[in-house]
Amino acid sequence: MTVTVRFAPSPTGHIHIGNSRPALYNWLFAQKMGGQFILRFDDTDTVRSKQEYAESIEKDLRWLGIDPDRIERQSDRLSTYDVSAQTLKDAGLLYPCYETPDELERRRSRQRALGRPPVYDRSGLKQSAEERAALEAEGRKPHWRFLLPNYDGDPFSTKRTDVAWKDLCRGDQAVDLASMSDPVLIRADGSYLYTFTSIVDDIEMGVSHILRGEDHISNTAVQIAIFRALKAEPPIFGHHNLLTTQDGEGLSKRKGALSIGSLREEGLEPMAVASLAVLTGTSQAVEPVPTMEVLVEKFDLTSVSKSSAKFDPEELKGLNARLVHELPFEAVKDRLVNLGIRPSAVFWETVRGNCETVGDARHYWQVVVGPVESRVEDDDAEFVAKAKEFLPDGDITEDSWGAWTSALKAETGRKGRGLFMPLRRVLTGMDHGPDMKALLPLIGRQNILDRLP
């Protein structure tokens, strides 16, 4: 069997780090199994779907390292859904219902008040052709429900009907179809719901595995029933835990601060985002993974926890810093040029250990080329003034810092912080930063002299 998976976002907004989890899980699974990954846009909602969002989603996925093998759009496949819907209608498995949303809600409220589950009573199925014609004469348009196979003979007398499957993440699962309402597959305006279009697409595109969030578990039994009604073998399912905030709050497209685009603009590395999105909520340590190839090797659905995957956005910064500290010069050379830096391996190796993002190198480049806001405390003014006299002659090398501070120590008796900090402050304007031994040659003699009083 050829493994085929899909990620099917609605292009109604930008994807966030929570969306990236199922996208990454599916892509990593396909890579591990030698399969295919389909990016399939659920864009049948013509009001909310926008091309700009589709382009943004594709851009964000490619930034993360996800290159789709195929890109499909459901808006191109409406005729296919028409054929499958007619198949279900002809089989008596898709029936029209004329209740308005308000009428349905009032009915559910009455059921709750009586202590009954708010399950649809299949009133639409009882109506005769004449009754339906009369309702349509009033101007009503039907929505269409799928008749769940939760009965023997009489659809108005349901019985417990467990649909079971072996979940790749959660083990044996089962859902009772008798506890559920017949799902609406076609809206009153004639548009299809994602539940239906997704199944038709999965059948025609040969999707073998569906990996998605645990919030879809209850839908799976219904979808398996629809697969079988369309004479298709259901895919293998896996439901991973959802990525949430530390407070357990779910993520949504409205929370723009966690969008993939915003994380990219903050200068975060794609592998920091991918590492956190994939490893959080598993039995594996959340650590920065350097490449997608290594992440493929680490990926293991059996390590996914059944509890929620809580993450701290601040953790991204730590992961990112650890990745940046290991980036070789060749990997960042072009990015440094784009930052306005005249790059060299020596400069990058000097400053990278102090960078949370590659973009932080701009600050240290300013320290090198100047100007800087030199800082001199009152108690250090005399010491800093004397420092110029003891600056070693000749080229500034990595040995210059040690020779300079040794000479000043012998002259002034200062040592430790009292010796090093005033020099760092006057030359860089900072209390902390790269090793002055390596930084001093980059600053150069003339800049050093210009910054000393």
What's this, in brief?
The protein is mainly alpha-helical and 453 residues long.
List keywords for this structure.
453 residues; mainly alpha; Rossmann fold; three-stranded parallel sheet; three-stranded antiparallel sheet; 12 strands; 45% helix
What does this protein structure show overall?
The chain starts with a strand and ends with a helix. The strands form five sheets. The protein has a three-stranded parallel β-sheet with strand order 1-2-3. The longest helix is centred in the first third of the chain and has 17 residues, at 17-33. With 453 residues, the protein is mainly alpha-helical. A hairpin with a 3-residue loop joins β6 (162-167) and β7 (171-176). The protein has three domains: 1-72 and 83-88 and 159-173 and 195-326, Rossmann fold (3-Layer(aba) Sandwich); 329-369, no CATH class; 378-451. The chain has helices at residues 17-33, 51-64, 78-90, 101-113, 123-126, 129-137, 194-204, 217-229, 260-265, 270-279, 292-298, 313-324, 329-338, 345-351, 361-369, 381-390, 400-412, 417-428, 436-443, 445-451; strands spanning 4-7, 36-41, 70-73, 94-97, 143-146, 162-167, 171-176, 184-186, 209-213, 236-240, 243-244, 309-310. α10 crosses α12. It is elongated, with a radius of gyration of 31 Å.
